[in-house]
Amino acid sequence: MSGSETRGLKVETNGLDVIDDAERRGRPRQLFWPWFGANVSVLGLSYGSFTLGFGISFWQALVAGVVGILFSFLLCGFIAIAGKRGSAPTMLLSRAAFGVRGNRLPSAISWLLTVGWETVLTALATLATSTVFERLGWGGGTATKVIALVVVAALTVAAGVLGFDAIMKLQTWITWITGVLTVVYVVLVAGDVHWDAVSALPSGSAQQWVGALVFLMTGFGLGWVNAAADYSRYLPRSSSGRGVVGWTTFGASAAPLVLLVFGLLLAGSSPDLNKAVAADPIGALTTLLPLWFLVPFAIVAVLGLVGGAVLDIYSSGLALLSAGLRVPRPVAAFVDGVIMVAGTVYIVFFGGEFLGQFQGFLVTLGVPVAAWCGVMLADVLLRRRDYAERDLFEPAGRYGDVRLGPIALVLVATALGWGLVTNSAADWLKWQGYLLEPFGLGGRDGSWAYANLGVLVALALGFVVTLSTRQRIRAQEAA
């Protein structure tokens, strides 16, 4: 699969290091495995229900899915170019835009997002296992949830601590196992698709369609942009940039596109299933299955979710180091694992309904991450040379210490973005949407209230303004 197969499996000591030439090997097509393995989760089926929840038709949801998934993962592909140019983690390369110490703010935001995602995925794996055991009559109560949490957390933390080689091997196995079992699942429940009901779903407004589009972008590619270069950094600098973009985008989006389409068909066929997914996104899917396939389904559900959580815990550890914590990378991954377990305990045992809190989490952190993504994307596209590796660690170097312009841009874009999004299902976020009325968009109860335009505004503002800094980047490259 990659050069990692020729090395013994051991704990990766690389943290914020620039990867030595002797360790850089492989080809862009090998990026397919980690990205596909991280996104082949059956959670993609539940996104069909989430998307129809915006009140749009099947065809509107399909277009929103194709555009939102492909575009958001294409952003990951472009940012992944920075990895092979600089052979360093994403949030270290971000120092070229924000300064060596100025980058601590976006690194902290990135850390929150990745820790949040790994916690959500671990919680879903725990809930899914409990549901399966309950249907089989094997329990499903507190004891089952505790055991499931221990197993899932152990797999995730172990892979995160071991690092790159372990993750690449694990993701290959996850890809094959979950891919095959997911196909079996689709075949078994295909009879529950009723096209008459699906095609009868009424169309929604343009505002509802935009809301679904933004939700899908934040749920897929924008949830990964801050980790996009963490795996391409092991490729040789001579690797094809087009190959890096193409294989990252293809590997990450292939499974979600297929799963979303089938999820739309299932959710559109059954109002009861559509409602049940909001409370237990994975477990609700078991209600369509024969008993004999419940254990294989539990395997595919848990492995798929673990595949995503593993990439998140690896990247969250790197983001934590970039934010200023001075510990070895394995220790940072372990610290994130402890936080992940604590968060999972809250969601599973005390968190209440899942969907509203999940949407609030995605959109709220999606705004500053979109702003950072716009800055980073423009910065990567404007550069014509490899990064000056030593200066990424030197505040007095060409990239500077604290670059106030990009930091202020992210803060302003975030303030504007939060003013243009709403999350009424999450009580702790009702303060958002404060610009909808002043901007003539109907206020928090108007037609644009749930379009979540703030994510798109933050992304576009960060990108367009950074494009005007061409001379700064040319000066850096000529230093």
From TrEMBL:
Name assigned to this protein: Purine-cytosine permease
Keyword Magnesium: no
Keyword Protein transport: no
Membrane topology: Multi-pass membrane protein
Lineage: Bacteria, Bacillati, Actinomycetota, Actinomycetes, Pseudonocardiales
Molecular-function GO term, any one: transmembrane transporter activity
Pfam family name, one: Transp_cyt_pur
Organism of provenance: Amycolatopsis pretoriensis
InterPro entries per record: Pur-cyt_permease, Pur-cyt_permease_Fcy2/21/22
Record-stated family: Belongs to the purine-cytosine permease (2.A.39) family.
